[in-house]
Amino acid sequence: MKKFSVTVFILIALVSLFGLQMFAKQDPKVQKKDTLKKEVKVIETLQEDSLIIPKGKYKIFKKTAHASYYADKFHGRRTASGKKYDKNGLTAAHKTLPFGTKVKVTNLTNGKVVVVEITDRGPFVKGREIDLSRKAFMSITHNRATGQMNVSLEILQK
């Protein structure tokens, strides 16, 4: 009985010294699942941070403007430029800027930035300067429960 307890003690000491990894077999399925989880997290991070900001000179158009976003009911309808409105695209509506103009929109509350293309006319609500697509709006908002925010507008110079 004494030999058995000494052997168990030595075995416990070795396991604690070298860790269980040396004695335990790694299940390849578990390892693959962990790898997949890591890959999914990386992909999600890339999607959130994948907003491309074109390099170039930006000229301030308006330091403080009131922005809102299109209602989902316009998804798939034609815009004033002739393109279909896509709520998952990075587009916007402005009353006077030419179609195709790239506008850098910065949320004044949190500093987040998105570059959108003007594809439509509007907004037709007093006090609002620009209507953003849903994706553009949600990518820079600090509060997803509201449909408006204060922004600054800069135009990409050609």
TrEMBL record:
InterPro entries: RlpA, RlpA-like_DPBB, RlpA-like_sf, RplA. It comes from the Bacteria. One of its GO terms (molecular function) is lytic endotransglycosylase activity. GO terms for biological process: cell wall organization; peptidoglycan metabolic process. Keywords: Cell wall biogenesis/degradation, Lipoprotein, Lyase. The keyword Cell wall biogenesis/degradation applies. Residues 64-151 form the RlpA-like protein double-psi beta-barrel domain. It is an enzyme of class 4 (lyase). Its EC number is 4.2.2.-. It holds the Pfam family DPBB_1. Belongs to the RlpA family. HAMAP family: RlpA. Lytic transglycosylase with a strong preference for naked glycan strands that lack stem peptides. This is Probable endolytic peptidoglycan transglycosylase RlpA.
